[in-house]
Amino acid sequence: MAGFRAARANVVPGLLVQGVMLGVLLAYYGYPPATRWLNQLAEVKTRWGYGYSALSGMIAGGVLPEIIRVIVFQKGKWRRTNTGNLFFAMAFWAFMGTVVDGFYRLQAGWFGHATTFAVVVKKVLVDQFLYNPLFAGPVTAMLYDLNHRGFRLRGASEFFTVRYYREVVVPTLFANWGVWIPVVCILYSLPTSLQIPLLGLALSLWVMLYSWMSEQRSAALKAA
After folding, report:
1. Local structure of residue 159 (DSSP, 8 states)
2. Which of 100, 46, 68, 43 is nearest to 204 (CA)?
3. What are the CA-CA distances from residue 6 to residues 3, 80, 171, 175 (Å)?
4. How far does the chain reach from its first CA to its final CA, in angstroms?
5. Digit-coded pLDDT (tens) for 5-53
6. Residue 57: helix, strand or coil by DSSP?
7. Cystine design at 200: which of 19, 33, 60, 178 (Cβ 3.0–4.6 Å)?
């Protein structure tokens, strides 16, 4: 039930992110100027390789969210906690950017680079129902919780229990699936070299929208 509540709470920002990504997909296949520009972006990704993935993840998942938090929610006041959060998020999302890049390349090796329906379905299923619940979901939850604890290892053994997975990881998986299954369907429908650049776009939009929605919910609870 916690998972369904989390998914329902993310409906509005999720639909906005999905709408933007669908627009990008349609523009790529139906609007030649957009196709040329996106192909140029794909060439940059190809030249930079994993460096592009690390930088993209660092900016999309680390720098932008903290800047938004300070400007919008803290009225421009930078706090000590922002510095710690920034360095953690930059390191984490740079790491995850390279991991996802490697995972996308691995899937392309397994299933091919074609954007046919059968290939896209296989990649989405492996992505969302193997990679996500077995690696990305647990690792993200554990490291963010560890960061909130100041990286104190006392009590960290709970991260490896069934209870932690059920109470913490599973709700985040439901919230993730509600937003990201349509998004990765779109990503896998594009050329492999474009998937990481547009993943960065989706991640940036998602983090910004989610941060705003989260703040609005917190303000409403305080007012009540």
Report:
1. G
2. 68
3. 5, 29, 6, 5
4. 24
5. 666 666 677 788 888 889 999 999 999 999 999 999 999 999 999 999 9
6. helix
7. 60
